[in-house]
């Protein structure tokens, strides 16, 4: 089987963007690939975190992976901090990555602007750690949203550079981007992506929002002063709502546009809100159920960390040998 790797940060509560852009695709791909789905807590501390909060969020995120439909028997669900190979490989890859390459990363520029009081070296080398995450498992595919494309490209460049020097060490990964839902926009500013670290809670639908909150946020979603429900770049708010609606219902844009022909924005927003609320309800119910079963989740965390460590160590030893570190006796 081919190998798939992906992960999410435990920086906040997952949004509909994370769900439609990544998690929902993970579930459909999990039969076809040998899958590693990581809670990337090493990445999370590039931004200041409250320790107790981070621990709680990381556990909730892993639980949510299962609630969204990932079978923990078939998929390796684990914490990045439980597999030291991530950090060890990241160090080595740091020495094969140029400052100039990292300087071009748009996520760094965005986050440095947002967190001007804490522009740390970890934030700058974030893409190298991400490259290590992916290459550690010799991953063939990486399902991500469009915002992570640039990081995937640098991963491929680093892997290629390493292979050119040392021979075929790393598999060169391919991105997997869903046909729809790959870039869900903020409900308050449809020119910005929906993000779980956005300060305004009305910008994002959180996976744990109750139906009333979901519908209220959609009703308040920023659109435009027009009336027509059409899919065009000139109406980013309406376009975003159509994207959300179509990704969930699996209808085509044409079908959706026809369905809402002649209807007002109010009615349209309500319909999208109800569709999202209905879709998330079973995930929320499973999450509540699973959260009560401490022993079950603990077991998964332990077993899967062992499994991930086993595969990670194989690549790591090979890389260490290639760069000239002494053999272990
Ligand atoms: P943060 O603001 O803390 O970076 P985030 O919402 O960007 O949070 P990440 O943990 O960085 O979430 O990304 C997890 C996954 O979700 C990645 O695959 C990313 O591409 C995807 N993703 C993030 N935001 C969106 C979005 N608005 N639309 C579609 N996919 C998204
Ligand atoms: Mg992000």
TrEMBL record:
<keyword id="KW-0547">Nucleotide-binding</keyword>
<dbReference type="InterPro" id="IPR014729">
    <property type="entry name" value="Rossmann-like_a/b/a_fold"/>
</dbReference>
<dbReference type="InterPro" id="IPR024109">
    <property type="entry name" value="Trp-tRNA-ligase_bac-type"/>
</dbReference>
<protein>
    <recommendedName>
        <fullName>Tryptophan--tRNA ligase</fullName>
        <ecNumber>6.1.1.2</ecNumber>
    </recommendedName>
</protein>
<feature type="binding site">
    <location>
        <position position="133"/>
    </location>
    <ligand>
        <name>L-tryptophan</name>
    </ligand>
</feature>
<dbReference type="InterPro" id="IPR002305">
    <property type="entry name" value="aa-tRNA-synth_Ic"/>
</dbReference>
<dbReference type="Pfam" id="PF00579">
    <property type="entry name" value="tRNA-synt_1b"/>
</dbReference>
<feature type="binding site">
    <location>
        <begin position="17"/>
        <end position="18"/>
    </location>
    <ligand>
        <name>ATP</name>
    </ligand>
</feature>
<dbReference type="InterPro" id="IPR002306">
    <property type="entry name" value="Trp-tRNA-ligase"/>
</dbReference>
<dbReference type="GO" id="GO:0004830">
    <property type="term" value="F:tryptophan-tRNA ligase activity"/>
</dbReference>
<comment type="similarity">
    <text>Belongs to the class-I aminoacyl-tRNA synthetase family.</text>
</comment>
<comment type="subunit">
    <text>Homodimer.</text>
</comment>
<dbReference type="GO" id="GO:0005524">
    <property type="term" value="F:ATP binding"/>
</dbReference>
<comment type="function">
    <text>Catalyzes the attachment of tryptophan to tRNA(Trp).</text>
</comment>
<keyword id="KW-0648">Protein biosynthesis</keyword>
<dbReference type="GO" id="GO:0005829">
    <property type="term" value="C:cytosol"/>
</dbReference>
<keyword id="KW-0436">Ligase</keyword>
<feature type="binding site">
    <location>
        <begin position="193"/>
        <end position="197"/>
    </location>
    <ligand>
        <name>ATP</name>
    </ligand>
</feature>
<feature type="binding site">
    <location>
        <begin position="9"/>
        <end position="11"/>
    </location>
    <ligand>
        <name>ATP</name>
    </ligand>
</feature>
<keyword id="KW-0067">ATP-binding</keyword>
<dbReference type="GO" id="GO:0006436">
    <property type="term" value="P:tryptophanyl-tRNA aminoacylation"/>
</dbReference>
<feature type="binding site">
    <location>
        <begin position="145"/>
        <end position="147"/>
    </location>
    <ligand>
        <name>ATP</name>
    </ligand>
</feature>
<feature type="short sequence motif" description="'KMSKS' region">
    <location>
        <begin position="193"/>
        <end position="197"/>
    </location>
</feature>
<feature type="binding site">
    <location>
        <position position="184"/>
    </location>
    <ligand>
        <name>ATP</name>
    </ligand>
</feature>
<dbReference type="InterPro" id="IPR050203">
    <property type="entry name" value="Trp-tRNA_synthetase"/>
</dbReference>
<keyword id="KW-0030">Aminoacyl-tRNA synthetase</keyword>
<feature type="short sequence motif" description="'HIGH' region">
    <location>
        <begin position="10"/>
        <end position="18"/>
    </location>
</feature>
<keyword id="KW-0963">Cytoplasm</keyword>
């Amino acid at each position: 089987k081919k190998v798939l790797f992906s992960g999410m940060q435990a920086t906040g509560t997952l949004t509909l963007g994370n769900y439609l852009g990544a998690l929902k695709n993970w579930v459909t791909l999990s039969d076809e690939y040998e899958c590693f789905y990581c809670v990337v807590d090493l990445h999370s501390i590039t931004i200041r975190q409250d320790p107790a909060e981070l621990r709680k969020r990381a556990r909730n995120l892993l639980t949510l992976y299962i609630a969204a439909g990932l079978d923990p028997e078939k998929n390796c669900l684990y914490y990045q901090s439980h597999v030291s190979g991530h950090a060890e490989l990241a160090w080595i890859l740091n020495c094969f990555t140029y400052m100039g390459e990292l300087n071009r990363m748009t996520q760094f520029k965005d986050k440095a602007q947002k967190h001007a009081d804490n522009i740390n070296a970890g934030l700058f080398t974030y893409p190298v750690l991400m490259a290590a995450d992916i290459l550690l498992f010799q991953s063939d595919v990486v399902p991500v949203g469009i915002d992570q494309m640039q990081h995937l490209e640098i991963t491929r460049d680093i892997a290629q550079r390493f292979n050119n020097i040392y021979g075929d060490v790393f598999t060169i990964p391919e991105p997997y981007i869903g046909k729809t839902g790959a870039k869900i926009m903020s409900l308050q500013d449809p020119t910005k992506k929906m993000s779980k670290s956005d300060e305004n809670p009305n910008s994002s639908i959180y996976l744990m929002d109750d139906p009333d909150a979901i519908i209220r946020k959609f009703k308040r979603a920023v659109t435009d002063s027009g009336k027509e429900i059409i899919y065009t770049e000139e109406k980013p708010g309406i376009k975003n709502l159509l994207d959300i609606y179509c990704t969930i219902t699996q209808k085509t844009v044409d079908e959706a546009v026809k369905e809402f022909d002649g209807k007002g924005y109010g009615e349209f927003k309500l319909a999208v809100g109800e569709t999202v609320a209905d879709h998330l309800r079973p995930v929320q119910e499973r999450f509540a159920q699973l959260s009560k079963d401490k022993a079950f989740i603990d077991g998964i965390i332990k077993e899967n960390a062992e499994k991930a460590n086993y595969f990670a160590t194989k690549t790591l030893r090979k890389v260490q040998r290639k760069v000239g570190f002494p053999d272990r006796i």
